């Protein structure tokens, strides 16, 4: 009994300042998985990532369809992803700004997009009946910003980005954060003096995007895309292959290019996006679609989730909005523009969608909500008596190493096994279990180290366990 009390006091004192499983806010709402293609309409519209995020208390449907409460564990992960994206944007010489969510409808009228995009725009009016958009994207707004400041050729290239909530009145919001009406997006806008320089910028950013997705350990694909309502001269998309994706990627087995099926079904988009020289004569109604580059009909297709998009815009926006820079000869010339989006909240959900098992979440290690969970023995157990001081020392060292990236599973009334199941369901990459292995024939207590992502378990000495987590932390840092 004495052991239990001692442990209880320690656990409570830790609760006050540390991350503990008993206090983290995870209201769980279980959604039954759809069974083999059947299930209710609600189940059909629910993706694996959405179900697992709700089951684990990470997100909660709000009063508005297609928008979600992000709860502490999910937000920790999203904030890590934001910091990661920041790191790659800084690497590419981009500067972070924050533009208002509201954009005047007048600006969108000037570029013709107010009508073109009308069905998907969410709009509001102020008390003077002036109308604004809850912006889905900021090409007009950023040009308006730049127009207010005289820009010299010396200031170009200019690369401005933000990460803010965007709004789209999806006709059919579904799959949780994968197709939401409100979502966190990283949008970068670039300005160059010439088309040649804009292409150089474009190639540089597309390369950085690849490096970012690589750093998450994701199997992504780049594909030529439709320029759609954003417009411009060239467009590349970044996708994760997934059955719940709403895009269809076509892969040419002959010349190895990938492109969005939209390029086959929309002649106008195809012409703008890839240029007449590389265009096939396929149309939507063609029974034998052919590659947009080599004309081969040896094509395969897969469903995918779009996670990023790059557009070489030329002067599509700078022309109507008169966004100019001053040359060395003191002339005003239109800027060449590019825009580059990453759906941050969608990328988070998409990474979970492609990495998780049917029953357990799996995170890219660098954005997992916690790197390590420590499971002390059940209160009052014989393991608790043996492992108490060892656990406390280990936690102290781990907290110094990882800060708040370590969480203690202090639900001491539950068995180690039960807590371990829950921790693995939540997908925390590493779990240090202070359980049966504490009691050994040699008298040296051992720690069970679980690697959730690859399913391995090692029984390690205290020193080995510390080194293991030290190495894991280094590997998780991008
Ligand atoms: Zn081809």
UniProtKB/TrEMBL annotation:
<dbReference type="InterPro" id="IPR036621">
    <property type="entry name" value="Anticodon-bd_dom_sf"/>
</dbReference>
<dbReference type="GO" id="GO:0005739">
    <property type="term" value="C:mitochondrion"/>
</dbReference>
<keyword id="KW-0030">Aminoacyl-tRNA synthetase</keyword>
<dbReference type="InterPro" id="IPR050062">
    <property type="entry name" value="Pro-tRNA_synthetase"/>
</dbReference>
<keyword id="KW-0436">Ligase</keyword>
<dbReference type="InterPro" id="IPR045864">
    <property type="entry name" value="aa-tRNA-synth_II/BPL/LPL"/>
</dbReference>
<dbReference type="InterPro" id="IPR033730">
    <property type="entry name" value="ProRS_core_prok"/>
</dbReference>
<dbReference type="GO" id="GO:0004827">
    <property type="term" value="F:proline-tRNA ligase activity"/>
</dbReference>
<dbReference type="InterPro" id="IPR002314">
    <property type="entry name" value="aa-tRNA-synt_IIb"/>
</dbReference>
<keyword id="KW-0547">Nucleotide-binding</keyword>
<dbReference type="GO" id="GO:0006433">
    <property type="term" value="P:prolyl-tRNA aminoacylation"/>
</dbReference>
<feature type="domain" description="Aminoacyl-transfer RNA synthetases class-II family profile">
    <location>
        <begin position="79"/>
        <end position="364"/>
    </location>
</feature>
<keyword id="KW-0648">Protein biosynthesis</keyword>
<dbReference type="GO" id="GO:0005524">
    <property type="term" value="F:ATP binding"/>
</dbReference>
<keyword id="KW-0067">ATP-binding</keyword>
<dbReference type="InterPro" id="IPR002316">
    <property type="entry name" value="Pro-tRNA-ligase_IIa"/>
</dbReference>
<dbReference type="Pfam" id="PF00587">
    <property type="entry name" value="tRNA-synt_2b"/>
</dbReference>
<dbReference type="InterPro" id="IPR006195">
    <property type="entry name" value="aa-tRNA-synth_II"/>
</dbReference>
<protein>
    <recommendedName>
        <fullName>Probable proline--tRNA ligase, mitochondrial</fullName>
        <ecNumber>6.1.1.15</ecNumber>
    </recommendedName>
</protein>
<dbReference type="Pfam" id="PF03129">
    <property type="entry name" value="HGTP_anticodon"/>
</dbReference>
<dbReference type="InterPro" id="IPR004154">
    <property type="entry name" value="Anticodon-bd"/>
</dbReference>
């Amino acid at each position: 009994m004495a052991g239990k009390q001692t442990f209880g006091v320690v656990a409570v004192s830790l609760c006050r300042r540390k991350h503990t499983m008993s206090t983290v806010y995870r209201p769980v709402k279980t959604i039954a998985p759809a069974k083999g293609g059947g299930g209710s309409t609600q189940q059909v519209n629910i993706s694996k990532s959405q179900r697992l995020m709700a089951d684990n208390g990470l997100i909660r449907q709000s009063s508005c369809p297609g928008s979600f409460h992000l709860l502490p564990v999910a937000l920790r992960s999203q904030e890590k992803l934001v910091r990661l994206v920041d790191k790659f944007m800084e690497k590419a010489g981009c500067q972070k700004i924050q533009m208002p969510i509201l954009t005047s409808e007048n600006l969108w009228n000037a570029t013709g997009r107010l009508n073109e995009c009308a069905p998907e725009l969410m709009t509001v009016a102020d008390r003077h009946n002036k109308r604004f958009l809850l912006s889905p994207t900021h090409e007009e707004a950023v040009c308006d910003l730049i127009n207010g400041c005289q820009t010299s050729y010396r200031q170009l290239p200019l690369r401005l980005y933000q990460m803010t909530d965007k709004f789209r009145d999806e006709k059919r919001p579904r799959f949780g954060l994968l197709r939401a009406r409100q979502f966190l997006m990283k949008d970068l806008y670039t300005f160059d003096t010439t088309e040649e320089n804009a292409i150089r910028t474009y190639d540089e950013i597309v390369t950085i995007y690849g490096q970012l997705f690589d750093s998450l350990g994701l199997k992504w694909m780049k594909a030529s895309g439709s320029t759609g309502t954003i417009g411009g001269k060239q467009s590349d998309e970044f996708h994760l292959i997934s059955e719940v994706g709403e895009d269809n990627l076509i892969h040419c087995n002959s010349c190895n290019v990938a492109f969005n099926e939209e390029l086959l079904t929309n002649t106008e988009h195809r012409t703008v996006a890839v240029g007449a020289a590389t265009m096939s004569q396929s149309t939507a109604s063609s029974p034998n679609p052919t590659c947009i580059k080599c004309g081969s009909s040896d094509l395969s297709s897969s469903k995918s989730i779009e996670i990023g998009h790059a557009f070489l815009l030329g002067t599509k926006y700078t022309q109507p909005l008169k966004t100019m820079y001053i040359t060395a000869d003191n002339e005003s010339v239109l800027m060449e523009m590019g825009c580059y989006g990453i759906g941050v909240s969608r990328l988070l959900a998409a990474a979970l969608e492609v990495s998780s098992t049917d029953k357990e979440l799996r995170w890219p290690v660098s954005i997992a909500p916690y790197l390590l969970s420590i499971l002390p023995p059940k209160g009052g157990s014989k393991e608790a008596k043996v492992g108490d001081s060892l656990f406390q020392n280990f936690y102290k060292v781990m907290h110094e190493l990882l800060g708040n990236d370590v969480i203690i599973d202090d639900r001491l009334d539950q068995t180690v096994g039960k807590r371990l199941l829950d921790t693995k369901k939540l997908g925390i990459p590493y779990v240090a279990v202070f359980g049966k292995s504490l009691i050994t024939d040699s008298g040296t207590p051992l720690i069970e180290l679980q690697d959730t992502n690859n399913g391995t378990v090692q029984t390690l000495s205290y020193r080995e366990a510390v080194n293991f987590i030290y190495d894991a932390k280094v590997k998780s840092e991008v």
